[in-house]
Amino acid sequence: MVTEAEIIDLINKAEEGPLLDYKEDLPLQTDGDKAEFVKDVIALANSGEKAHLVIGVEDGTGRIVGFRTTHQVEQINEILKDKCDPPISVEYAEKSILGYKIGVVEIEGENPPYIVSVRDKFGGPRSGNPQKQFFIQRGTVFIRNYNINEGVKRADLDKIYNKIKYIALQADVELNHKVTSEPVDKLTEANIEFILANHGDAVATDIYVWMQFKNVKEITKCTEDWTDISYVNDGTPTVQLIVKGPVIRPIGMHAGGIVVRVDSDISAIEARVIIGATNMRIKDGSYAISLKKED
Fold first, then answer.
1. Spatial contact of 242 and 275, defined as CB atoms under 8 Å apart
2. Which of 19, 27, 266, 278 is deepest in the core (most CB within 10 A)?
3. What is the distance between the alpha carbons of residues 214 and 272, in angstroms, rounded to a whole number?
4. What angle is formed at CA 53 by the lines to CA 96 and CA 109, rounded to 5 degrees?
């Protein structure tokens, strides 16, 4: 689930889009309230990516206003149950940000298109205004068109299916590791061996790995195609790996290793990693691994 720092980042964007929706409050008392919530979740899920509904932020301005009601993730998922096809399960958290209560619904749109799956229609009056009603109907597909949730058009469905085809042919490269160590000159020397594995459906070639270490004094050796590039990173221990490939699922490929020295236990070693390859989205730079000794 999102951290407090990530929530602040979502608020600081101050601009809604296909992956971000602001609401001042999230009333869920009536069927009309619940129907609109289902619509909002389906619209964000049909982005095909991780999306967020942030509650307690003024729509249109991004100004923090906070909200009073309290929800539980079980309550929210119970509302979504049997109303979305494929089923959607979300994460939910409430945090205090600058003295205001903020709620965040995190939605993983992994299998679009998502459609309304109620028996016929569902909804009714909205809380706070019984004259205002909202309904959703079976078979409806909602999308988020920039910052508006609306029913789908044929062109929108084409975009969803084209995106599905693109995602389906993605490589998914993962960097696995094993560490051995020995004492050297009052320090600890760690030998880290790497394996590249492809969990995706496409062949990965031209693989690039960038790795910046934390709690490492120096890099003493690079093998295979690893290169020490600390000199271009203000001396911070940093390496890169370039592999032409191919790496094919489910076969893993040995990617050589590096040797580093630390003045503490090797379990303190961490590394920020960025991985890219053909047919693959670059993995976020916040992706990190803890290099702990394996038996």
1. no
2. 266
3. 8
4. 135
**What tokens does 14 get?**
């101050």
Q: Report if residue 295 sits inside a domain.
A: no
Distance CA 68, CA 61 (A): 19
Q: How many domains does the chain have?
A: 2
- Within 10 angstroms of residue 79's Cβ, the number of other Cβ atoms is 18
CATH (domain of 145):
3.30.950.30
Q: What is the DSSP letter of 15?
A: -
pLDDT per residue as tens digits for the range 187-213:
889 899 999 999 887 888 899 999 999
Element (H, E) at 198: strand 187-198
CA atoms within 13 A on the CB side of 130: 0
Q: Kindly report the pTM of this predicted structure.
A: 0.59
294: pLDDT strictly greater than 90: no
DSSP string, 53-99: EEESB-TTT--B--------HHHHHHHHTTTEES----EEEEEEETT
* Closest C-alpha among 120, 42, 146, 44 to residue 87: 42
- How do 20-23 and 50-55 pair as beta strands? parallel
Examine the fold and report which residue of 168, 199, 216 is the final residue of a domain before the chain moves on: 168
Decide if pLDDT at 110 tops 60.
yes
Residues 246 and 207 in one domain: yes
Strand partners, 125: 133
Question: Which of 177, 141, 175 lies closest to 47 in space, CA to CA?
Answer: 141
